[in-house]
Structure prediction request, 265 residues.
Amino acid sequence: MEFTIQEDGNLSVVTVDAERIDAAIAISFKDKMREQMANFSGRMVLDLHKVDFIDSSGLGSIVAAMKLMPADGKLELAGLTPTVDKVFRMTRMDSIFTIHDSAQSAQAQSA
Amino acid sequence: MAINSGEQGATTLRYVLFSTPENVRNTLTSLRSDLNENGLHICPGDMWELVVAEVLNNIVEHAYGDSPDGEIKLNLHFSDLHLTAKFIDSGAAMPDGALPAGNPANLDVETQLLPEGGFGWNLIHSLSDRLVYERRGTENHLDLEMPIQILPKG
Prediction:
């Protein structure tokens, strides 16, 4: 699994280049996020528009990543596809994260 | 491994896999293409794959305790409105011989205490119409039924 990272001032957009965040990949996903977040400050938007499947292990790894964010950083989400969006709503995790329709709308908010 | 029953308007698929997260992923990926090959197009946003994934992950993680050589049999029957699924494994029985209640996780806590797991059974219970667990000899049998949305043909 690869990430594409686009940095713009204090906003960093991390696009997950994978169709699935599942139990087979949850640990490596969390490790990659840990690398991204080391010494990070500002807003990090995790763009999930390419991800069309997430299971509860994948969801858990995103929650774990959020906990790894340093105190002066914030992890937000963008681009949730229909099934991913449902998993967040059903587990009420949509109330924990700031969720944007797309990375573009997340960027517009900081402008 | 997949077998199509050929029954009118319905598709039966059978798989046997060994208990690793990678095999679960590969089985679900095959399942998607097997459904397409059988002309069954499920609506985007349908949650059938999540339910099947959560049950399989639970078998890998808990029934077989992450040991990679446990056999899992998966039978799926897709009809126009329902998925009927049967899971058989030879791993450890469910604690207390019954399905976990699957209560919603408590999110009313500070960030560092937010749960990173324990969502699975709540999702399975919420999305299923029928869920029956039985220990038969050395096997676990789980039967479930859930509504699905099929895209109209043409």
